[in-house]
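Could you join me in thinking about how sequence relates to backbone shape in a protein? To get us started, please write out a protein record for me. Would you write everything just below, so we can both look at the same thing?
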Amino acid sequence: MVTSNGYSAYKSNSINYASKEQLLLMLLEGAVKYSKIGRQAILDKNVPAAHENIVKTQNIFYELMATLDRSSGEWAESIYKVYEFITDRLYQANMKKDIDIMNEVIPLIEEIRNIWTEAYSISKNSNKAVSQY
Protein backbone atom coordinates (compact mmCIF):
# COMPACT_ATOMS: atom_id res chain seq x y z
CA MET A 1 0.00 0.00 0.00
CA VAL A 2 2.84 2.41 0.78
CA THR A 3 4.40 1.80 -2.63
CA SER A 4 1.11 2.57 -4.35
CA ASN A 5 0.69 5.83 -2.43
CA GLY A 6 4.29 6.80 -3.14
CA TYR A 7 3.84 6.16 -6.84
CA SER A 8 0.61 8.16 -6.88
CA ALA A 9 2.32 11.09 -5.18
CA TYR A 10 5.25 10.90 -7.62
CA LYS A 11 2.93 10.74 -10.62
CA SER A 12 0.82 13.62 -9.34
CA ASN A 13 3.87 15.78 -8.65
CA SER A 14 5.42 15.03 -12.04
CA ILE A 15 2.25 16.28 -13.71
CA ASN A 16 1.71 19.24 -11.39
CA TYR A 17 5.26 20.54 -11.80
CA ALA A 18 5.83 19.70 -15.45
CA SER A 19 6.35 22.47 -17.97
CA LYS A 20 3.82 22.85 -20.77
CA GLU A 21 6.35 21.23 -23.11
CA GLN A 22 6.76 18.25 -20.79
CA LEU A 23 2.96 17.92 -20.49
CA LEU A 24 2.71 17.87 -24.29
CA LEU A 25 5.26 15.06 -24.44
CA MET A 26 3.41 13.14 -21.70
CA LEU A 27 0.17 13.44 -23.65
CA LEU A 28 1.81 12.20 -26.83
CA GLU A 29 3.41 9.26 -25.00
CA GLY A 30 -0.07 8.43 -23.74
CA ALA A 31 -1.49 8.67 -27.26
CA VAL A 32 1.09 6.20 -28.55
CA LYS A 33 0.46 3.86 -25.62
CA TYR A 34 -3.34 3.91 -25.80
CA SER A 35 -3.45 3.60 -29.59
CA LYS A 36 -1.25 0.49 -29.43
CA ILE A 37 -3.38 -0.99 -26.65
CA GLY A 38 -6.47 -0.24 -28.75
CA ARG A 39 -4.93 -1.93 -31.78
CA GLN A 40 -4.05 -5.01 -29.73
CA ALA A 41 -7.56 -5.11 -28.29
CA ILE A 42 -8.98 -5.12 -31.83
CA LEU A 43 -6.72 -8.07 -32.67
CA ASP A 44 -7.85 -9.81 -29.47
CA LYS A 45 -11.51 -9.11 -30.34
CA ASN A 46 -11.87 -7.24 -27.02
CA VAL A 47 -14.37 -4.62 -28.18
CA PRO A 48 -14.74 -2.75 -24.83
CA ALA A 49 -10.96 -2.40 -24.39
CA ALA A 50 -10.51 -1.35 -28.02
CA HIS A 51 -13.21 1.30 -27.68
CA GLU A 52 -11.87 2.60 -24.35
CA ASN A 53 -8.29 2.99 -25.54
CA ILE A 54 -9.12 4.45 -28.93
CA VAL A 55 -11.35 7.01 -27.22
CA LYS A 56 -8.51 7.85 -24.80
CA THR A 57 -6.27 8.48 -27.81
CA GLN A 58 -8.93 10.63 -29.47
CA ASN A 59 -9.41 12.63 -26.28
CA ILE A 60 -5.69 13.38 -26.13
CA PHE A 61 -5.81 14.79 -29.65
CA TYR A 62 -8.99 16.74 -28.90
CA GLU A 63 -7.14 18.31 -25.98
CA LEU A 64 -4.16 19.12 -28.20
CA MET A 65 -6.52 20.69 -30.73
CA ALA A 66 -8.32 22.73 -28.08
CA THR A 67 -5.11 24.12 -26.61
CA LEU A 68 -3.32 24.83 -29.89
CA ASP A 69 -2.93 28.56 -30.55
CA ARG A 70 -4.13 28.58 -34.13
CA SER A 71 -3.31 32.28 -34.49
CA SER A 72 0.41 31.41 -34.28
CA GLY A 73 0.68 31.11 -38.01
CA GLU A 74 0.33 28.70 -40.86
CA TRP A 75 2.24 25.92 -39.06
CA ALA A 76 -0.37 25.90 -36.25
CA GLU A 77 -3.22 25.56 -38.73
CA SER A 78 -1.34 22.74 -40.47
CA ILE A 79 -0.76 20.81 -37.25
CA TYR A 80 -4.41 21.33 -36.32
CA LYS A 81 -5.41 19.67 -39.60
CA VAL A 82 -3.09 16.74 -38.87
CA TYR A 83 -4.64 16.32 -35.40
CA GLU A 84 -8.10 16.54 -36.97
CA PHE A 85 -7.16 13.85 -39.51
CA ILE A 86 -5.92 11.57 -36.71
CA THR A 87 -9.11 11.98 -34.65
CA ASP A 88 -11.23 11.27 -37.72
CA ARG A 89 -9.27 8.13 -38.57
CA LEU A 90 -9.42 6.96 -34.95
CA TYR A 91 -13.19 7.47 -35.01
CA GLN A 92 -13.43 5.34 -38.17
CA ALA A 93 -11.15 2.66 -36.72
CA ASN A 94 -13.24 2.56 -33.57
CA MET A 95 -16.56 2.32 -35.39
CA LYS A 96 -15.34 -0.45 -37.69
CA LYS A 97 -12.78 -2.01 -35.30
CA ASP A 98 -10.47 -1.75 -38.31
CA ILE A 99 -6.91 -2.89 -37.69
CA ASP A 100 -5.72 -1.44 -41.03
CA ILE A 101 -6.75 2.07 -40.01
CA MET A 102 -4.97 1.64 -36.67
CA ASN A 103 -1.86 0.44 -38.53
CA GLU A 104 -2.09 3.58 -40.67
CA VAL A 105 -2.53 6.06 -37.83
CA ILE A 106 -0.16 4.70 -35.16
CA PRO A 107 3.03 5.52 -37.14
CA LEU A 108 1.67 9.04 -37.64
CA ILE A 109 1.06 9.42 -33.89
CA GLU A 110 4.57 8.12 -33.22
CA GLU A 111 6.04 10.56 -35.74
CA ILE A 112 4.24 13.49 -34.11
CA ARG A 113 5.60 12.39 -30.73
CA ASN A 114 9.10 12.10 -32.19
CA ILE A 115 8.94 15.54 -33.81
CA TRP A 116 7.77 17.23 -30.59
CA THR A 117 10.38 15.31 -28.58
CA GLU A 118 13.11 16.49 -30.95
CA ALA A 119 11.81 20.07 -30.87
CA TYR A 120 11.80 20.00 -27.06
CA SER A 121 15.34 18.61 -26.99
CA ILE A 122 16.61 21.27 -29.43
CA SER A 123 14.87 24.01 -27.47
CA LYS A 124 16.24 22.74 -24.17
CA ASN A 125 19.79 22.52 -25.55
CA SER A 126 19.64 25.97 -27.14
CA ASN A 127 18.43 27.43 -23.83
CA LYS A 128 21.42 25.84 -22.08
CA ALA A 129 23.78 27.37 -24.62
CA VAL A 130 22.24 30.82 -24.16
CA SER A 131 22.38 30.59 -20.36
CA GLN A 132 26.11 29.78 -20.50
CA TYR A 133 26.89 33.25 -21.85
User: Anything to note?
Assistant: The CA atoms of residues 33 and 111 lie 13 Å apart.
